[in-house]
Design goal:
alpha/beta, globular, single chain, 21 strands, 4-stranded antiparallel β-sheet
C-alpha cells in the first residue's frame, strides 16, 4: 500500500518547492483558493476574470483564441431559437412509446442532422407499464366517486387535447381492487412509518394516504408495503404546492385542487431497464423474469387534494403529531376512527395496469474532436414526458439542442472542438432513468476510457436563479464559467455575481450541491464514476410537475415569454463545454476533490480516533506527529498547482496532453471498479437509499462508522485515497517528466 508515496511527498524538498510554486502562482494570477478567487472576481472585468481562470489550463498563446471562440458561441445563442425548439418538442403529449414520442424522436434526429452532426438513434425496448383503469371511491359512510383525472381549464388550449392521458397514474403500480380503512402517514418516509409504529398505529391491511414530498414516490410504496399496507394513495397537498404558496393556475402558477403528480414507482437497486441489467435493452436481448424482481406489490394511485380532502376530512382518530399537518382547512388525523371505536370510513382503491416491452429511443449527436476524438464530454437531458413536458424535461432538452447549434455554427467558421462533444436526448427517463442507462451500457468501454465529464440538464431553465450540483472536481470549472456570462434579466451583473448575492453572507464562493439520484446522471456517475454535474436555474412561482398543466401555456405564464433563463444557461453550458473541449490541462481539479473528501471525512463520527489507532505500518512513524489525511490532501493540492505551472510545456505535445487527460480522469474517476457486486459504485457519493433523491457522501466510510469498528473504519478511510492513487501516481510521473 503506497497511499501516494506519502513519505516521499512529505519531505522538506517538496514543502520548499510547494512554497515556491505558490509564489509563482500568485505572481501569475492563478487561483490559489476560493476566497482569493471570489474577492478578485468582484473587482475585475468579465474578460479579465475569464483570462485569469484560463491561466492554469491553457497555454498563454491560446487564451485569447479560446475567449474569442467562447464569445462567438454565446453570440450565436438565441432566445428566439430556444423558443422555437420549445415549440418543436413540447406541442404535443409524448409519453414513452406513444405516437408523440416517435414524433419527438424524429424531430430531434432531423434537427441534429441539419446541424451536420453524426446522429445515432439507439432504439430500445424497455419493460414499461401502461394504465388501463383507476378508481378511488368512498364506500362508507356514504358512496362517492373521487376525482382521479385533471379537467381541462378555460384559457389553456393545451388541456383540450383529446390524445392526452388525463387520468393520473403511477407507473409500475401493482394491479388490484381493494376496499379498506385508511391511515394517514404524512410523507410516507421511513421515519414517518417508524413514528406510526411508535404511536401504535397499525397499517396492516389498510389503505395508506400520504402527501407528495420528502422522498421518492417509489420509496413511499416500499415503506408502505413493508408496514403491511394493502394500498397507497398519494396526494398533492396545498400546503406544499397549492394555494398556501400563492395564486393557483391559471391565475398564478401553483397547483389546483385537481392537479395530479404522475410518476414512476420503480425503485430497484440500479437504474435502467428492469429486465436487462448490464446490457442494452435491444429487441432480442436476453431478459430476466419480471417475477424475480422487487417491483411494486401494492396498488398505488396519485390524486389531487380535492379527492384527498374527501377522505381526510372524514377521519376522526387522533390528531397528527407536529410537522404532519398539511394545508387543508381542518385538523389532519392519523386514523379514521378513535381507538376502540368501530371504523366506519372505508375507501375503495382500484388500479389496473399492463406491463410489457415498449419501443422508444435515445437520440445522440456527436461532434468529433479535431485532435483528441477519443476524449469526450457529454451533454444530456431526457426527451420523454408525462404529458407535454414543457418544464419537465423540455426546458432542459432545448438547451442541449441550442448548445449543439451554437457549436455547429462555429464549426462552419472553422472553429471546432479539440475533444469530442456529445449532445444527447434520452428516452424513458421518467420510468426509471432507462434510456441514458441503456446508452451507457452500450458504450461502456468508450466512456470508461475517454469520458471527461457528463452534464445533466433535466428541467433546467425554470427561472433566473442559477444553481448547480457537481462532483467536487468540476466545481471550479462551473464557478469560473458563470463569471463570463451575463445574468438573465440583469446583464449588468454576471451569473456569478447574482449567484454570490444569494449565497450566505460569509461565503467565499457560491455553494454547489451534491449529486444524488433521480435523473440521467446516475448511470454515468453512480455506476461508472464519471465526474458529473447538473446545471439549472429556478425562482419561478409555481409548479406543474408531472401534470397535464406542464405545457407551454403554463411555462410562458410562470417562467416567462422572454427565454432569458434558458439563454443564460445555454451560455454557461457553452463556456463549460468549450473549456473542457480545448483545455491543454482538462478542467478536472483533483485538489478540490481531495479537499472535499477531507472535509466530509472529518464530519464522520469516529474517523479521527480510527486513524490514531490504525495498524497500517506506513503510517506508524508519522501518525503521532502528523495529521496524515491533511498531509495527503495538501500533497494532492500541490500536484494540482504544480500541473498548472507546466501548462506551457504540456501544450506543446499532444502525447503529453493525452497523458495528462488520462491521469486526471483516473484520479477523478469515482467508481470502485474492484467491487462488481454493487451497481452504485461511486465511492464519493451515491443516491440516498431512503429518499431516492438525496446524496450520501463517502458511503463506505459511513457504513463502517455505523458499525463502530475503528480498524475497519481506518481501512475504509485510506481506501478512499487508494481509489485515487493510480491516477495520482500517473499525474506525479507526468508532472515530473514535464519539468525535465
Amino acid at each position: 500500500m503506497k497511499i501516494f508515496h506519502l513519505r516521499r511527498w512529505h519531505s522538506s524538498r517538496h514543502y520548499t518547492r510547494r512554497m515556491n510554486v505558490a509564489a509563482v502562482l500568485v505572481a501569475c494570477g492563478v487561483m490559489l483558493g476560493a476566497g482569493d478567487a471570489g474577492s478578485v472576481a468582484r473587482t475585475e472585468s468579465r474578460d479579465e476574470a475569464a483570462k485569469r481562470s484560463l491561466a492554469g489550463s491553457f497555454a498563454a498563446a491560446r487564451i485569447d483564441e479560446q475567449l474569442r471562440w467562447e464569445s462567438g458561441l454565446n453570440e450565436a445563442a438565441s432566445a428566439e431559437r430556444l423558443r422555437a425548439w420549445h415549440d418543436l418538442l413540447a406541442s404535443e403529449p409524448h409519453i414513452s412509446g406513444s405516437p408523440g414520442d416517435m414524433n419527438v424522436i424524429a424531430s430531434l434526429a432531423g434537427s441534429f442532422e441539419k446541424m451536420g452532426l453524426e446522429v445515432e438513434v439507439q432504439w430500445i425496448w424497455p419493460y414499461l407499464s401502461v394504465p388501463v383503469e383507476s378508481r378511488v371511491e368512498l364506500v362508507a359512510p356514504e358512496a362517492m366517486a373521487l376525482v382521479t383525472v385533471e379537467p381541462a381549464l378555460a384559457g389553456d388550449p393545451f388541456t383540450q387535447n383529446a390524445a392526452l392521458l388525463h387520468g393520473g397514474w403511477n407507473a409500475y403500480s401493482a394491479s388490484g381492487d381493494i376496499t379498506a380503512n385508511v391511515v394517514y402517514a404524512n410523507y410516507a418516509t421511513k421515519e414517518d412509518f417508524e413514528k406510526l409504529k411508535e404511536m401504535g398505529v397499525e397499517c396492516a391491511g389498510k389503505i395508506v394516504v400520504a402527501r407528495y414530498g420528502g422522498n421518492f414516490r417509489g420509496s413511499k410504496e416500499i415503506f408502505a408495503r413493508k408496514a403491511g399496507a394493502a394500498g397507497l394513495i398519494i396526494f398533492t397537498d396545498p400546503g406544499d404546492a397549492g394555494y398556501a404558496k400563492g395564486p393557483m393556475y391559471p391565475e398564478g402558477g401553483w397547483a389546483t385542487s385537481t392537479q395530479i403528480q404522475r410518476g414512476s414507482l420503480l425503485a430497484l437497486d440500479r437504474a435502467g431497464d428492469p429486465l436487462t441489467p448490464g446490457i442494452p435493452a435491444t429487441e432480442n436481448a436476453k431478459r430476466v423474469n419480471p417475477d424475480d424482481l422487487d417491483l411494486p406489490k401494492i396498488p398505488v394511485q396519485p390524486v389531487g387534494w380535492a379527492a384527498a380532502q374527501e377522505i381526510l376530512s372524514r377521519m376522526k382518530g387522533k390528531p397528527v403529531p407536529d410537522g404532519w399537518q398539511g394545508g387543508l382547512p381542518f385538523t389532519y388525523r392519523l386514523t379514521s376512527a378513535p381507538e376502540g371505536e368501530a371504523d366506519a370510513l372505508r375507501v375503495r382503491l382500484k388500479v389496473e395496469q399492463k406491463r410489457g416491452l415498449v419501443k422508444t429511443a435515445n437520440v445522440v449527436a456527436t461532434m468529433k474532436g479535431t485532435r483528441f476524438p477519443d476524449e469526450m464530454f457529454i451533454i444530456g437531458c431526457h426527451h420523454d414526458a408525462w404529458g407535454y413536458g414543457a418544464a419537465d424535461p423540455t426546458c432542459g432538452t432545448i438547451l442541449v439542442l441550442e448548445a449543439a447549434r451554437c457549436f455547429s455554427e462555429m464549426a462552419k467558421q472553422g472553429l471546432k472542438p479539440e475533444r469530442t462533444l456529445v449532445f444527447a436526448a434520452w428516452g424513458a427517463e421518467e420510468h426509471g432513468i432507462i434510456g441514458s442507462t441503456e446508452w451507457v451500457e452500450a458504450h461502456r468501454a468508450e466512456l470508461e476510457s475517454g469520458a471527461l465529464a457528463y452534464v445533466n440538464l433535466d428541467m433546467a431553465a425554470m427561472g433566473p436563479m442559477f444553481g448547480a450540483s457537481a462532483t467536487p472536481s468540476l466545481r471550479r470549472l462551473i464557478i469560473d464559467a458563470t463569471k463570463s456570462v451575463p445574468q438573465a434579466r440583469d446583464p449588468s451583473k454576471s451569473v456569478y455575481e447574482d449567484w454570490m448575492k444569494r449565497s450566505a453572507t460569509d461565503a467565499a464562493e457560491p455553494k454547489l450541491g451534491e449529486l444524488g439520484g433521480g435523473s440521467d446522471h446516475v448511470a454515468f456517475y453512480s455506476w461508472l464514476g464519471i465526474p458529473s454535474m447538473s446545471l439549472g436555474s429556478g425562482g419561478s412561482r409555481g409548479t406543474s410537475y408531472h401534470s397535464i398543466y406542464d405545457n407551454l401555456h403554463w411555462y410562458r405564464l410562470v417562467v416567462g415569454e422572454d427565454y432569458e433563463p434558458a439563454l443564460m444557461l445555454t451560455r454557461v453550458i457553452n463556456v463549460v463545454a468549450a473549456r473542457l473541449a480545448n483545455a491543454d490541462i482538462p478542467a478536472l481539479n483533483v485538489g478540490d476533490l481531495a479537499k472535499a473528501v477531507e472535509e466530509v471525512l472529518r464530519s464522520v463520527p469516529g474517523v479521527p480516533e480510527a486513524l490514531k489507532g490504525t495498524e497500517m505500518t506506513i503510517f506508524k512513524e508519522s501518525i503521532k506527529k502528523d495529521d496524515v489525511v491533511k498531509m495527503a490532501v495538501e500533497r494532492i493540492q500541490e500536484m494540482q498547482r504544480e500541473l498548472a505551472t507546466q501548462v506551457e510545456s504540456i501544450a506543446k505535445s499532444d502525447e503529453k496532453r493525452r497523458e495528462v487527460s488520462r491521469a486526471l480522469r483516473a484520479a477523478c474517476c469515482l467508481a470502485d471498479r474492484n467491487d462488481t457486486t454493487r451497481w452504485h459504485r461511486n465511492w464519493w457519493a451515491i443516491p440516498d437509499p431512503d429518499s431516492g433523491y438525496g446524496a450520501v457522501t463517502v458511503p463506505g466510510v459511513r457504513a463502517s462508522s455505523a458499525k463502530n469498528d475503528p480498524e475497519a473504519l481506518g481501512r475504509d478511510v485510506w481506501g478512499v485515497f487508494e481509489w485515487m492513487e493510480p491516477g495520482l501516481d500517473e499525474l506525479h510521473r507526468v508532472s515530473a517528466g514535464s519539468t525535465r
